[in-house]
Amino acid sequence: MSQVSLAFGFGLVTAAILALCAVGFTLQFGVSNIFNLAYGDVMTVSAFAAYAVNRDLHTSIWLAMVGGAITGAALSVLINRLIYVPFLRRGTALFTMVMVSLAVATIVQNAIQAIAGAGFRSYTRTNESSLHFLGMILTPTQLIIIGIAIVSMLALHLLLRHTRVGKAMRATSADADLARSCGISTGRVTTIAWSLSGALCGMGGVALGLNLASFDFTFGNAFLLVIVAAAVFGSVGQPYGAMVGALVIGVVSEEAAIVSPSLKQVVAFAILVLILLVRPNGLWRSGFVQKMSMAAR
Amino acid sequence: MIARLTRLFLPALLVPPVALGLAACGGSSKATAGTPSTGSSSSSGSSSGGTLNIGVIYPFTGANADQGAVGMAGCLSGIAQVNKAGGVLGHQLACKPFDTKGDPADAVPAANQMMASASPVMVIGASDDAVATAPIVTGQHVVNFATIGDPHFDTQTNPYFYRLTPSDALQGVALGYWAAHHGLAHAAAAFTSDLGAQTSVPPLRTEYAKLGGKFTADVKLAPGQSSYRTEVSQIINSHPDALISEMDPQSSTTFLSEYKQLAGSLPQILGTERTSNSDWIQAVIGGIGEPTFVKSIKSITPYVSFTGAGYNLYKQELLGLGSQVKNPAQYVGQPYAISDFDAVAITALAMTMAKSTNPSTYNAFVTKVTAPGGTIVHTYADGLAAIKAGKAITYVGASGPLVFNKYHSAGRAFAYDVYDPAGKSMKAVSVIPGTALNGG
What we know:
Chain A is mostly helical. Chain A has helices at 3-32, 39-56, 61-89, 94-116, 140-162, 164-174, 176-181, 186-212, 219-233, 239-259, 264-278, 288-296, and strands at residues 131-133, 136-138.
C-alpha cells in the first residue's frame, strides 16, 4: 500500500471537515461582508453542545451532530443580529468589524471556559475496524464525515443555484443595495445565510472534535487559521472556491507529511501564497480583496 | 490566530487607558519587593503583620493551562503549612496568580504586571515561559523558583534563579537509558516541535544510541494538527517495539487514537513528565480508552517517593484546601506541585534564618537551608523550631532532598511510572538513580 494513496485518503478526511467549516465561513463574508473571527469559537460551542447531547442524553454522535448544527445556527444568527448588525447599521468600517469579531471571539472563548471548564471532552464512540480500499484506510466514521460534507456541499449548490432563497443570497452577496431595491428582503436573506453557515460551522466543529478524539475550549479557534486559508485560497465570499481550497489544503498537507511532518503546513501555505501571487483575489475570482479596496474607499 | 491578532492590536487599544492611569497615579512610587502588601511596611521583614505575596506565574489559560493549576496547588498547600505554623517572621503568605498564556509574548507583560502590582517576595514559575519571565523577576532581585527544563539553564549563573526540576537534557537521558536497559532496542521517537518537547530529543538520541538502541523512526511533529495519520502510518510501517514521545494533550490524543485506529493497538508509549499531568491523562483516556491507557502508557518523571513526613504534610495540606483548588486530589502525585510546595517552605525557612523577608538578604540562605550536613527537617514547623534552637538545618521536604548545585539546579532521580486507575494518576514503580545518568 503506497504512502501517497494512504495520505490521499487521510487528506480527504481533513478536506471534508475543512470544507464544512470554510464554506460556512465564506458564506458569512459573502452575504454580510464580515470577516468573522468568532467563527472558530462558535465551532467550539457547537462541539460542547453536541457533547452534552451525546454524553448526557446518551444519543448517537450523529444525532448529537444535529444538535451541534442547531446550536451553531442559533448562536451565529444571535451574534449577527445582536452584535454585528447594529455595528453595520452605523456604517462601521470592515477593519473595525474584524476587531469587533475578535472581541466576540474572546468573550465566547472565555465564556466556554467559565461554564465548561478547561478540561478535555471526548464523544462516545464505538470501536470500529478500518476499511481498506483503493490504497486508502478509512473508518466508517470518517466515511460518514466525508459523506456529510459531500451531501452538504451538493445541497448548498442546489440551494444557491436552483431556489429563490439561493438566488436572493447570491444577489445580496453581489450587491446588497441593488438587491434591496429589487424587492429582496436582505435582512431575512442574511438571517437565512447566517443560520445555514452556522449549521455548517456547527457540523464542522463536531466533525473536528470527532477527528481530534478529544477537544477543549480552545480547539475551534486553533483551527481557524486553516479555515481562513482555505477560504482565502478559493476567494473569500465564494462557497465553491472554499470547497476547492479545502480539498487542496487538506490533501496537499497530508501528502507533504510523507516527506517531512514539519512541511505539512509549510507546503499548504506556500501554495496559498503562490496562488495569491498569480491571482491576488484567490482562485475563484474577485472577492475579499475587492471588498477590502471598496471598504477602504 | 486570535491570540496573534490580540497581540497585534491590543497594545494600541490599551495605550490610552494605561497612559491615563499612569497620569492619574502621578508621582506615586513603585512598591519594593519584600514590602508587605498590608500592615506596617518594612522591607527588612522584621516587623509583624501584613501579608507577603508569592507570585505564581504560569499559563492559566490556553493549551498549557494545567501548569497554572499545578503551580497554584503547590503554592497554596505550601503557604498553608507556613501560615498554620504562625507565618514567617510574623507575616502571613498569599499566592497571587499571573497568566503567561503559554506564550513568551504574553508572559513578559504578565511578569511586569506581577512585579508592579503584587510586589512579590518570591516567585514560583514559570515553566517553558521562564525564558521570558525570569530576567524580569531576577532583574528586580526577587528569588525565582522555576520548573523550566530548558538545558540553557543548566549552567545559568543568575544568583536569584533556582530550578526545582531536572533539566530536559537529563529527562532525555533518562528516557534513552530506561528504554535501552529494558529491551526496547528498536523504538520510534515522536516529539512535537515546541521547545519544551524538543529539548529532550538530542540527549535522548545520544544516550539511546550509546546504549545500542536504534530509532526505527524519528519524527518532529507540528503541534495542534487536525490529523497525524500520514505520520502515524509511517511510524507503524517502521515496526517499532515502543514509542518514545512528548506532546501536548491535544496532539497526543489525536496522534495516539489514530495510531490505535490504524495499527489496531498501541505499542508501549514511553512519555515524559507531561504524561503525568492530569489534563494529559484525561484527554488521552478520552481518545484511546482507559484499558488501552493502562496497558500502553508509561512515563519517566522526576522521582518523588510519596512517603515520609514532608510528603504526608503536603498531601494533608493539599486535600485541606477545599474549594481553593478544583479537585485537589488530582495533584497528590504531581511532582511539580510538590516541588512548588517545597519552594515555599525553603523560602520561608531562608527568610527565618536570614531574619528578613527581603529577597536580597534571604537569598544567600536558600542554599544553606537545603545543604546537606545540618539537622534534617521535613516540615517548615520543624525547621522553624530547629533554627530557633540555633541549629543548622537540611530541609528534606515532600519531594525528597533538593540539593542545589552551583548553577542552582536541584539534582533528582527519575522514576518509571505506570497508570494507577484507582488513583487516576501515574504511579512510580521503579527508580532510575541520578547516578546512573550521565548528567546526574
